[in-house]
Amino acid sequence: MRTIEWDDKFILKIEKLDHQHKEMFDLLCRLGETIGKKEGKDRQSAIYDDLIDLTQTHFESEEEMMERLGYSDYQLHTDEHNFLLEVASNFKEKLELKGQPMREGDMAFLLDWLEIHILGADKKLGEFLTGRGVK
Ligand SMILES: [Fe+2]
Ligand SMILES: [Fe+2]
């Protein structure tokens, strides 16, 4: 089972965003523990709701910072966020309306997306923000 561990390479040096990213990692790990367990469906659903809420809040934080400071890649970065939210709500629909629990492949997708997004788009944003004196 693919998993994800917090590592210094993910640090942006922006306190609020780093804290939210760490929380996302924690929830993803907890979600991963429910995969393949029949009795874990309700638990999975509850953790997944928390993960979506946190992700939305986190994206809003980043987007507010980008907008406020006139970040030139705002649209590109926001498109990546919106793509993830679309896929995430698809998983939620399957889980809650069709009773199909998340699978290993779904989990791997979320982990890959997060890792690539933080190391790419978020790192770039982090450099921009630290350059503007944001901590
Ligand atoms: Fe982002
Ligand atoms: Fe982020």
Concise structural overview:
This protein is an all-alpha fold and 135 residues long.
Identify the notable features of this structure and list them briefly.
mainly alpha; 135 residues; Four Helix Bundle (Hemerythrin (Met), subunit A); binds fe (ii) ion; single chain; 72% helix; elongated
Structure characterization notes:
The chain has helices at residues 15-32, 41-68, 74-96, 104-131. The chain has 135 residues and is an all-alpha fold. It has one domain (36-131): Four Helix Bundle (Hemerythrin (Met), subunit A) (Up-down Bundle), CATH 1.20.120.50. Helix 1 packs antiparallel against helix 2 and helix 2 runs antiparallel to helix 3. It binds fe (ii) ion (2 copies).
Major sheet: size, sense and barrel closure?
Answer: none
Number of helices: 4
Low-confidence runs = none
CATH homologous superfamily title: Hemerythrin-like
SSE order and pairing:
Layout: H1 15-32, H2 41-68, H3 74-96, H4 104-131
Helix pairs in contact: 1-2, 2-3, 3-4
The structure holds fe (ii) ion (2 copies).
